[in-house]
Amino acid sequence: MADCGCDSHQQSLKPFDEALSFLLAQAKPITDTETLPLEKALGRVLAVPVHSQVDVPPWDNSAMDGYAINTRDLVKLESLRVAQRIPAGAAGSELQSGTAARIFTGAPVPPGADAVVMQEVCTVEGDQVSVTQPSVPGANIRRAGEDILQGEEILKAGTRLSPHHLGLAASVGVPTLTVYRPLRVAVFSSGDELVMPGGELGPGQIYNSNQFTLGGLVKRMGCEVIQLGMVEDTLEATCEALKRGAKSADLILASGGVSVGEEDHVKPAVEQLGSLDLWKVAIRPGKPIAFGQVDGTPFFGAPGNPVSLFTTFTIFARPFILRLQGMEEGYMPMAFKAIAAFEKAGTDKRREYARAKMEMDEQGRAVVKLYANRSSGVLSSVAWANGLAVLPAMTAISQGDTIEFIPFSELMT
Ligand code: AMP
Ligand code: MG
């Protein structure tokens, strides 16, 4: 693991961007690939680009239900004889002068026709059609190759596959895609106070919520979750969990125990088995975060406070995981401009990622409210929110100011 140039004992806060750049620079994307049928490739990252074998559409076709005509005939004639019928899936014959072809959306425009007139502007009597509005060459015709040209790259390597990407591959006749294998992520929660839901709480005990938040976040990203469960607050148990994770996974994620108190064993355990950088990052909530490796397997440790865990995962670990999965672009969440419906003093040295709710006001503007309780233990605030508001360090915010807002859709997919 490269040296981040930080001294883990120093109390100074590491700037967020510096910590994230360091983390991303350490990301070694997986290289194993597999070739899957389209329906199995959803959510995977494409390893080999896709080029089109065909023009799409393959021929000029009608954009409307109507009549294929030659516009020159409209100048000379009051009406045209409907000489052929071309539904989608059929091919017409050469359009003879003075005739029209009944045509339907998607059907090939017959040779000799230069426009399609929609049926709404036509009057039909027997086998004669008259066109009640002028038409121009090219009207309502979708040209061959206007979507995709043969040989064109339609999907880049490094694309995380959404439904429309699968549709695009299918539209050029490609039945399989070569993708990276799923990332295996080992997850554990450390803390002697933890009890699984369904169990009885003894004195000083709390339910283990992080296992579900973290496991769900990782699973949603298309990773294979290796659940190592709860780990007691001892050096031995922590080392054991780390070893199991390193053996079975591409990445180890841990919640809790990353501070430097005598009940926090993650730091010494990772240092014993590999190497560790522990940072006090200048964000709220979330300092500290731990990053390192065990037997060459990267390790990311987040604080146990449920909101800190959520925030550090979504803003630090998620882009890192997307890079490991092979994604080459678009792995950073997008922030959107919105209007603050709150105030904040400009005295905080740390950038805050505050649980926030964006709503539309009567004028259709995006307005952002904050959850009243900013404590990092209040997980109900995340359930209330639909995103995170980015509140820069040492910056006062007044009602009506423009701020940045990251919707959960950018943080949880
Ligand atoms: P730690 O980071 O281990 O010092 O924990 C910080 C706070 O988060 C403590 O109040 C813990 O009880 C709480 N916590 C730690 N792990 C979990 C967990 N898995 N689920 C819910 N709360 C937790
Ligand atoms: Mg603890």
Descriptive overview:
With 413 residues, the chain is α/β, with parallel strands linked by helices. It has four domains: 165 residues, Molybdenum Cofactor Biosythetic Enzyme, Chain A (3-Layer(aba) Sandwich); 51 residues, Molybdopterin biosynthesis moea protein, domain 2; 82 residues, Beta Complex (Molybdopterin biosynthesis moeA protein, domain 3); 75 residues, Beta-clip (Beta Barrel), CATH 2.40.340.10. The protein contains eight helices and 26 strands. The protein has a six-stranded mixed sheet with strand order 7-4-6-5-9-8. A six-stranded mixed sheet has the order 16-13-17-21-20-18, sandwiched between helices. It has a five-stranded mixed beta barrel with strand order 22-24-23-25-26. A hairpin with a 2-residue loop joins β20 and β21. α4 runs parallel beside α7 and α5 packs across α6. The radius of gyration is 30 Å and the shape is elongated. The N terminus is likely disordered. Magnesium ion (MG) binds next to loops.
Ligand roster:
adenosine monophosphate, magnesium ion
Largest sheet: 6 strands, mixed
Beta strand %: 25-35%
Uncertain stretches: 1-10
Number of helical elements: 8
Total strands: the figure is: 26
Topology:
Layout: H1 16-25, E1 33-37, E2 50-51, E3 61-62, E4 66-69, H2 71-76, E5 80-86, E6 99-103, E7 115-118, E8 122-125, E9 128-131, E10 141-142, E11 153-155, H3 163-171, E12 176-180, E13 184-190, E14 194-195, E15 206-207, H4 210-220, E16 224-231, H5 235-248, E17 251-255, H6 266-273, E18 274-279, E19 283-284, E20 289-294, E21 297-302, H7 306-324, E22 336-340, E23 351-360, E24 366-370, H8 380-384, E25 387-391, E26 402-407
Parallel strand pairs: 5-6, 13-16, 13-17, 14-15, 17-21, 19-23, 22-24
Antiparallel strand pairs: 1-12, 2-11, 3-10, 4-6, 4-7, 5-9, 8-9, 18-20, 20-21, 22-26, 23-24, 23-25, 25-26
Helix pairs in contact: 4-7, 5-6
